[in-house]
Design goal:
Keywords: Membrane, Transmembrane, Transmembrane helix. The chain is 34% helix and 22% strand. By secondary structure, the chain is of the alpha+beta class. The chain has a five-stranded antiparallel β-sheet with strand order 3-2-1-4-5. Helix 3 crosses helix 5.
């Protein structure tokens, strides 16, 4: 059975029970694989491999570790784990959400020189949920300010964002998180 060369980000591992690894593949979306290879169990790792899909089952071979998110892990390990947790729970299995792999790759492998500013984190989470097509129905989130924020780049923050906009953005993100049926189990909740 032939496969295709691909890349993936390790979202979660289950070393203690089954050697199960959850990958966000650039083509196939979120997939489950089983592997005992050490670098497959490094959360956040960028891997290259030959992906073989057999229906909904995925296998990989000829895998290599390309990179680890050293900058983000060094300066903000908790935020990296929050992103992994949200990606694990919100991205549907075997679903390839357009742009989500490239977005998370960009966030994880950016050159951080210090902690990620709080506003940048909020914008990253905002864009993450926007890519997933999540948008709270509450009318207070359907304003011109929110639509302008969709164009912001987390690394190039304008000084014109008001505290009220930041609080609204935080509320928007919480609404998205609380929409998930397992939200009470998330570790990310207290960090917002």
């Amino acid at each position: 059975m032939l496969g295709r060369q691909s890349h993936g980000l390790v979202l979660r591992t289950f070393l203690d029970t089954s050697n199960k690894v959850i990958l966000l593949d650039e083509h196939a979306g979120k997939i489950n694989i089983y592997s005992s290879f050490e670098h497959m169990h490094m959360v956040g790792a960028l891997l290259s491999y030959n992906l073989i899909m057999d229906g909904v089952r995925a296998r990989v071979n000829d895998h290599n570790l390309i990179a680890l998110p050293h900058h983000l892990a060094h300066y903000d390990l908790a935020f990296m784990h929050q992103l992994c947790e949200l990606a694990y729970y919100f991205i549907p299995l075997s679903s390839c959400v357009p742009g989500i792999f490239n977005f998370l790759h960009m966030v994880w492998y950016a050159e951080y020189n210090s902690h990620v500013p709080v506003l940048s984190k909020y914008l990253i989470l905002f864009k993450f949920f926007m890519l997933l097509g999540m948008y709270p129905e509450d009318k207070r989130f359907h304003t011109a300010a929110f639509y302008r924020m969709t164009a912001l780049v987390p690394s190039q923050l304008p000084e014109s964002i008001q505290d009220a906009d930041i609080n609204s953005l935080k509320s928007w993100i919480k609404e998205c998180i609380h929409a998930h049926p397992m939200a009470k189990l998330f570790k990310v909740g207290g960090a917002l």
